[in-house]
Amino acid sequence: MTEFLIETQGLRKSFGKVEVLRGVDLAIPRGEVTGLLGTNGAGKSTLIRCLLGLLRPTGGTASLLGCTSWELADAEKSRLGYVAQEVQLFASFRVRDMVGYTAAFYSRWDANLVRELLERWELPESKSCGVLSAGERQKLGIVLALGHRPELLILDEPAASLDPQARRLFLESVLQLAADGERTILFSTHITSDIERAASHLAILQGGVVRLHSDLDGLKDRVKRLRITGGGGRLKAEDVPGVLKWSEQGEVVQVTTDRYSPDLPQRLHEQRGVEVLVEDLNLEDVFLAFH
Amino acid sequence: MGDFTTLFSVNPSSGVPIYRQLIEQVLGLIASGRLRAGDELPSVRQLGAVLSVNFMTISKAWARLEADGVVLHERGRGMVVQAVGGAGPTPQQLRQVRELMDQAVVRGVQCGLSRADLKAVFRASVEECGL
Fold first, then answer.
1. Nearest 5°: phi and psi at A249?
2. Residues of each domain in chain B carrying CATH 1.10.10.10
3. Cβ contacts (< 8 Å) between A221 and chain B: which residues?
4. Do A148 and A81 contact (CB within 8 A), yes or no?
5. Residue A59 C-alpha, separation from nearest chain B C-alpha, in angstroms
6. Which of A100, A148, A189, A272 has the fewest CB atoms within 10 Å, counting from its CB?
7. How far apart are CA A63 and CA B33, in angstroms?
8. Model pTM?
9. Is B57 at the interface with chain A, CB within 8 A?
10. Non-local CB neighbours of A88 within 8 Å, separated by 6+ positions
C-alpha cells in the first residue's frame, strides 16, 4: 500500500461566511517533491496551515505522516520541517542564538549542515535577528527548517523575498535534501521555473479545490496548444479531447488540450482534413490554460 | 576520462520536459562525436547539483537512454555510452524526424504550396545535405 505523507479528503475551511477550501483532495506519497501553484487568494496558505494543524478544518480531514493534522504529537513534529511565509524570529536574539534555540527542540540536529548553510547563504552568526532584511529572515527560516533533515518539508512561498542568487541556493539545498528519494517536500510558489527545476510533481489549487495533481513530465507531454488550419470549418470542439481553451480567428483555430497524444494530429487530419501544428507549453502557459 | 558535466544545459521554462532535453542532448553529443563509446555520462547527483534539477529527472533520462540501448549501466562506473554506429535510427528518433517534418509540411500548406512544390522543396533539402 502506498504511504501518503500528506493526505486530505474533502478538506474544507471557512473564515466566517467565506469558504476558502471547498473539498480539497490531495494525496502525496513519500519521495515526491510537489510544487503548489494557485492565484493569490486561492487558499495555498490556508491549505498548508490546515495540514500543519495551525488551523482547524471546518470539514473533511487533513493528515501528515499518517497522523491527523490537528492532533500532531511531538513525535511527528520532530520529523517535520516548516517555513512560514512570515518567518518568526526573536528580534533580540543573534542568528547563533536562534539556531541554538531551534536545535534544542530536536534530538537529531545536523550542526555541520547548518553552519555550512549559514556560511554559503552569507548569514553572519553574530548578526542580530532584529536587523535582518526580509530576504535574510527567509533564508534563516529555511536553514532552521533544514537543520534536523526532516522527512517531510513544507514551505509556504519560500522564495518570495529571495534574490535570484539566494533562490538558486535555496533550490540546491532542497535538491540535496531530496537526493535520497526518501524526503517528501511540498512548497507553494508563484515562480513556475522553480517548480520546473526542483519538483517532480505539480498541484494546482483553484477555487478551493485541487484542480490538477500530476507529475511534471507527463503534464508537459499531455498539455499542448494546437494551431489548426484548413478543413473548411468541419472541425468541431468534440473532435479534440480534453479542450481547455478554444479560440477561432479567421481560418485558424487555436486549441489548448490536456489530453494530447502523438497520434492526434494525424487523426484530425484524416477525419476533418485539417493541418495541425503542435506547440509545447511551459508551466506558466499550462497554469494560465487552467484559469 | 573526461568530465562531461559541462556539456549539458537545460531550459526549465521550455515546453519540452527536462528529461527529454537531456535525452536529446546525449543523442546529439553522440551524433556529433563529442561522446564516444566507452565514455561515462555524469552521475545523477553530480549533474543534478550542477544544473539545479531534481535528481529523479536526470535518472529518468538516463534510464530511458539505457532502455533504448544507448548507454549501459556498468557496475562501479555508471552509465557508459555504447557503440552506436550502424544501429540505425531508433523508433523514437524516427518519430522526432517525422514530427519536425510534419511541422514543415503544415507551414508549407499554410503558405499555399502544392504537393509538387513540397516534394521539390524536400528534394532540394536532401540534395543540399549531400546524402
1. -140, 105
2. 5-81
3. 17
4. yes
5. 35
6. A100
7. 53
8. 0.83
9. yes
10. none
Q: What is the residue type of A58?
A: T
8 Å CB contact of A199 and B103:
no
Q: Which three cell numbers stand for residue B75?
A: 557496475
B contacts of A276 (beta carbons < 8 Å): 106
**3-state secondary structure string, B1-63?**
CCCCHHHCCCCCCCCCCHHHHHHHHHHHHHHCCCCCCCCECCCHHHHHHHHCCCHHHHHHHHH
**Cα separation values, A113 from A93, A101, A140, Å:** 21, 16, 13
pLDDT in tens, chain A (291 residues): 678 999 999 999 999 999 999 999 999 999 999 999 999 989 999 999 999 999 999 999 999 999 999 999 999 999 999 999 889 999 999 999 999 999 999 999 999 999 999 999 999 999 999 999 999 999 999 999 999 999 999 999 998 889 999 998 899 888 988 888 889 999 999 999 999 999 999 999 999 999 999 999 999 999 999 999 988 888 888 999 999 999 998 889 999 999 999 999 999 999 999 999 999 999 999 999 998
Q: Which fold has domain B5-81?
A: Arc Repressor Mutant, subunit A (1.10.10)
